[in-house]
């Protein structure tokens, strides 16, 4: 595992963080315990550390990587809150069984896509989207406000202007899907927005990683927008189902490349 810097704060790279770089090409300064948690989290979800493995103790870890013991303890607390590890006084810090991992946590999703995730996991994210997003689009068609529709249209325009191969285009895509979940005007559903939009973001980043996308999905998004704009719930559900299904097909093409 590589820790990006040994001080209290450090800049980190796109690959180690699982996050997209800003316009300057650099990320915001990140505290060292966050970097440690991210690097350990990536190592766990990628299989470098298997469920049941004991992680190095804080004395060994801090000496090896020249970081403070308090930074390591805080990193472990972050991972424990996400279900990735459990700490016990006599046995140390152990990687939890996969069933205990909070895979709906947006950071855990990001860590899963730092390396190439298993095809079954990617497929499961699309299955989750197919369960939630078509229903959300149907609700949004009858409940959206004029202001929300205007923002949705702007996000669609930005996607078309920048393309999904760029960070700006992917941000617009994120905004588009998030706006639909919010426009559904359902509080429990809105609570899932960070998870769903994280799944949208990272599967899109993954698809474009190998520059293997055979078509643009902008028209698919446009069809969803039109259905929501005219208040056609059935059409909104159908077009969103098509959008997510075609995105899954595109991703399978990349996985098979």
Could you explain the architecture of this structure?
With 257 residues, the chain is mostly helical. The protein folds into two domains: 9-100, Orthogonal Bundle (Arc Repressor Mutant, subunit A), CATH 1.10.10.10; 119-255, Four Helix Bundle (Hemerythrin (Met), subunit A), CATH 1.20.120. Helix content is 63%, strand content 5%. The protein is built from twelve helices and four strands. The protein has helices at residues 14-17, 32-45, 58-65, 69-81, 106-112, 119-143, 146-162, 167-183, 187-190, 193-209, 218-229, 233-255, and strands at residues 9-10, 30-31, 85-88, 92-95. The protein has a two-stranded antiparallel ribbon with strand order 1-2. It has a two-stranded antiparallel ribbon with strand order 3-4. Helix 2 (32-45) crosses helix 4 (69-81) and helix 10 (193-209) packs across helix 12. The longest helix is centred in the middle third of the chain and has 25 residues, at 119-143. The radius of gyration is 20 Å and the shape is elongated. Residues 4-29 have low confidence and may be disordered.
Query: What do we call the CATH homologous superfamily of the largest domain?
Result: GntR ligand-binding domain-like
Shape: elongated
Helix-strand sequence: EHEHHHEEHHHHHHHH
Structural class: mainly alpha
Helix content: 55-70%
């Amino acid at each position: 595992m590589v820790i990006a810097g040994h001080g209290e704060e450090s800049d980190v790279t796109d690959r180690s963080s699982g996050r997209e770089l800003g316009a300057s090409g650099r990320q915001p300064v990140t505290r060292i315990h966050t970097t440690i948690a991210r690097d350990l989290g990536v190592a766990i979800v990628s299989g470098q550390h298997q469920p049941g493995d004991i992680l190095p103790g804080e004395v060994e870890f801090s000496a090896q990587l020249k970081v403070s013991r308090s930074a390591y303890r805080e990193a472990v607390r972050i991972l424990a809150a996400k279900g990735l590890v459990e700490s016990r006084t006599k046995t140390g810090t152990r990687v939890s069984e996969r069933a205990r991992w909070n895979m709906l946590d947006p950071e855990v999703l990001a860590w899963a896509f730092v390396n190439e995730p298993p095809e079954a996991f990617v497929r499961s994210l699309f299955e989750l989207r197919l369960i939630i997003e078509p229903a959300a689009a149907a609700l949004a068609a009858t409940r959206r406000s004029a202001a929300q529709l205007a923002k949705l249209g702007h996000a669609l325009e930005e996607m078309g202007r920048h393309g999904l191969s760029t960070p700006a285009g992917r941000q617009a895509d994120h905004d588009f899907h998030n706006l639909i979940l919010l426009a559904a005007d359902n509080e429990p559903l809105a609570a899932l927005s960070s998870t769903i939009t994280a799944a949208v973001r990272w599967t899109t980043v993954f698809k474009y990683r190998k520059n293997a996308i055979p078509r643009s999905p902008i028209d698919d998004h446009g069809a969803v927008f039109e259905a929501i704009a005219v208040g056609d719930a059935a059409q909104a559900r159908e077009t969103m189902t098509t959008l997510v299904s075609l995105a899954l097909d595109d991703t399978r093409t990349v996985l098979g490349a």
